[in-house]
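agent> fetching stored inputs for the guanosine-5',3'-tetraphosphate docking request
agent> found them:
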Amino acid sequence: MTIQWFPGHMTRAKRQIQEKLKLIDIAIELLDARVPLSSRNPMVDEILQQKPKLVVLNKSDLADPAVTKEWVAYFADRGIDALPMDATTGFGVKEIPERAKVVLKEKIDRQISKGLNPRAIRALIVGIPNVGKSTLINRMAGRNIAATGDKPGVTKGQQWIKTGGGIELLDTPGILWPKFEDQMVGYRLAMIGSIKDQLLGLEDVAYQAVRYMLKEYGNELKERYDLESVPAYSDELEANDVVDVMEQIGRRRGCLQSGGGVNLEKAAMVILRDLRGGKLGRISLERPEAGTGST
Ligand code: G4P
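agent> prediction call returned; pasting tokens
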């Protein structure tokens, strides 16, 4: 689902999350493993205030495992624990309680030293639309979907879901909004289907995806579409060379218009569908290095 965000929406979304902060011990920030920084709302730290946080790199089944490792190291360098996950199969989900306990260790140790029995950790899942929040909540809830009901001090209507491993989840996630002052961030969000293609133009989104794949995954592209050759990547790669690859793909996939020319719009649709569906292999669209907007 793509939500059109206006300042009023953003203020309300921010307020809704901040109201929940006082109920929780930890926020679980979901990012898309293929574009961890682009799928991160830049205001998230301000919104979450000083709340302890665990980062989850979801959809890691679609991302390049080597690049995901680089991202885990990137976050670790910044003192943030980031956990790769695939919420649809449940890969990584079981690790959440243990990781949360590590993040909250000081607080838990303090409770124990005061002779208190640490209660279940209360968590809120936050992230931009389509990043997998509901899937993760359902996955964590498993058969324990029975909500634990209202608790004293809990906003009326808030439901807690008991999950295994000593974590209770708020049943509604905090919805952050995608933000892209940098156009490349917008393109990456469109590549993963988090914002509508039409916002930046379908063909332009596919163009940027192919350009990036020529840089990082030229062979995958060549093999998947059985292309004769793909141009070697350089920063000076001409737009025409990229469009030529799109046309080759279109021809291979029968995206033709009357007269025999390639229908570039159809080709763009095919490329983006294949990319999003993992048909091109496990592809990351952002790397933690200079020049990716990943500072
Ligand atoms: P949201 O609450 O953050 O908006 O996201 P939601 O859970 O609705 O997930 C959005 C889409 O992403 C869903 O696909 C969901 O199945 C998929 N998804 C969630 N987590 C993962 C993951 O770890 N790996 C992969 N590959 N996909 C994931 P959909 O096409 O919208 O729906 P459906 O096909 O599942 O019906």
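agent> quick read of the result: The first helix runs from residue 7 to 21.
agent> awaiting further instructions
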